[in-house]
Amino acid sequence: MEDVAARAGVSRALVSIVFRGTAGASERTRERVLAAAADLGYQPDQRASRLSRTRTRMLGVVFGVGHAFHGDLVDSLYAAADVSDYEVVLSGVTPRRSEEEAVRALLAERCEGIVLVGSALPSPALSELAARLPTVSLLRDVRATGVDVVRTDDAEGLRQAVTHLHGLGHRHIVHADGGRAPGAAQRRRGYRSAARRLGLEATPLLPGGLTEEDGARAAGVLLSLPPGERPTAVTAFNDRCALGLVDAVRRAGLKVPEGLSVVGFDDIRAASYAHIALTTIRQDADALGRLAIERAASRLDRGQPPGRPVVVAPALVVRATTGAPR
Amino acid sequence: MEDVAARAGVSRALVSIVFRGTAGASERTRERVLAAAADLGYQPDQRASRLSRTRTRMLGVVFGVGHAFHGDLVDSLYAAADVSDYEVVLSGVTPRRSEEEAVRALLAERCEGIVLVGSALPSPALSELAARLPTVSLLRDVRATGVDVVRTDDAEGLRQAVTHLHGLGHRHIVHADGGRAPGAAQRRRGYRSAARRLGLEATPLLPGGLTEEDGARAAGVLLSLPPGERPTAVTAFNDRCALGLVDAVRRAGLKVPEGLSVVGFDDIRAASYAHIALTTIRQDADALGRLAIERAASRLDRGQPPGRPVVVAPALVVRATTGAPR
DNA sequence: GCTCGTTACTAGAGCGCTCTAGTCGAGGAG
DNA sequence: CTCCTCGACTAGAGCGCTCTAGTAACGAGC
């Protein structure tokens, strides 16, 4: 910076002004400084800049590196942070890197706020974190003091799925459960309430999960049922589970949707591929990311207190894995 | 830090010594400082620490947020950086965030080295980057001056795939191509050389790609061939392509492996799921990540010049999508 | 001519650490 | 008793920026 200033014949402060784009430099000097910087290959040092600014304007994002839907959210978070003039710092959770570790790295970095995507942290840990800095739990509904929540209306999503299947004529619908995964409890609840309201037969849940493998396992359970008792439709915890289920069921000779209708959840990119064409409940990744950033930003910029959970409406996307029974 | 020092009755410098774990503090003071810090909830500020240290010991990693295999590599990069005492800083490439942008963010952060996973940057841009800081291209083989390359022996992988199929009795094997994706050219070459060596019929490539959708499209082309001319086996550019292909082909009524054998590439986690059980060429994510970090570290720590490409051997993993023809 | 406002610019004190070059006191060697 | 060494600790400069409180120059208005 010193060198750039010398070359442009100005003070260091002026160089700073030019690079921050603040007022206080004439057009001519601005150009001279920029030219000098280009000659010298100078690029301002973010760390130093953040250190001297009191605000860092950094938002930490903890996400599961392998999760397809987390990837969609990261895209949206990057985009939303950009317009709010915050910078996203990623910290990934992988099989060998725990969520605690990911959070710790972000804290040492002095992020001003933190967004946890599908966090599995116990709520005391979340409260503790929230006491230190604005924390938003994205996807997972937690009742932890101080923690903001942005999530999809999971229950409503399942209601839509069940209603859709009911409308097609299905009367025996089963839910492949997500266990303890974020949103799973709400989806179960949505499934049950819709089933009750529509007067469908009560069916025990299928043990599902988050991955294709879990879906395939659920398919095994389903297929082991005597044909008479076999449901004609399944709502799966998520798309990956649905995909695994569809795959396994088809390989067993059951046609989808003729023999079995399947609805997923998330609308990951793969769900829309022509050869898959999964009917699913779309989570609005764009809105979720945007709202998460907005929440963090409003707490940081306008000193607002944590608010009530923000719930985003899901939408049914009808594709080719659902149809009338038989 | 000042407060911690005051509370422990020592100087700031001593606090710094304790937190860095350097020699020069007695056991008793060390404990006093740690206790004071715990009371105050003090945690050192990484940014300030890095600013004053000349070295930042940060390694930037640019990766595709959606790519399953990149996720596996990120896991391995985190682990490897940990042992080399470097810190990984992620910068994601998404549909709305270009690789250039991802790199720029890392440079402003003052990373000391950079690892590009499956980079799509033109080689002049890579050389320019490499002139600024140690750069390693992971997965993609580039001939750009100053750029280190760590990759799988893609050609060898395809040779293994073709040889495996040949051993099962296949004489008509086609390759679903990856186009301009990293490694695609080498895989094509490996396929061709193996086919030639084994005296197989020359077959035009199937237009493939990186995603399940591309694989499904390739399946369409394959199925449109008159049965007599139809190959009995396919080597796919990667697992996702293979998965899409298998799926589409099965839905068209062709059995896998009875009617068609399929070999993937990568060995992503999903390939090993029981209901998928894809025969594939395993890329050693652990070795790739470790070698990439080692390369960067050896240039940084020991001032070594960029070296020749590091090529990791792939391994055939036989599962359930390959078998004898007919 | 003088004051006042503006615009263009600068000096220099931080930001929260690290690290070099010390000081200080307690032993040990001569 | 002096001189050294050594371990424990501290002062203070510096990392590369930002930002407040200025200064200088130049018109405009009276």
Descriptive overview:
2 copies of one chain form a homodimer. The first copy, chain A, is an alpha/beta fold and 326 residues long. Chain A has 3 domains: 2-44, 434 Repressor (Amino-terminal Domain); 58-152 and 285-312, 3-Layer(aba) Sandwich (Rossmann fold); 154-283, Response regulator (Rossmann fold, 3-Layer(aba) Sandwich). Chain A has 12 helices and 12 strands. The first copy, chain A, has helices at 2-8, 12-20, 27-40, 46-52, 68-84, 99-108, 123-132, 154-168, 184-197, 212-223, 239-251, 285-301, and strands at residues 58-64, 87-93, 113-117, 135-138, 147-152, 173-177, 206-207, 233-236, 261-266, 279-282, 310-312, 315-317. In chain A, strands 2-1-3-4-5-11 form a 6-stranded parallel sheet, sandwiched between helices. In chain A, strands 7-6-8-9-10-12 form a 6-stranded mixed sheet, with helices on both faces. In chain A, helix 5 (68-84) crosses helix 12. Chain A is elongated, with a radius of gyration of 25 Å. The relative contact order of chain A is 0.12. The mean pLDDT of chain A is 94. Chains A and B meet through helix 4, helix 5, strand 2, helix 6 and helix 10 of A and helix 4, helix 5, strand 2, helix 6 and helix 10 of B.
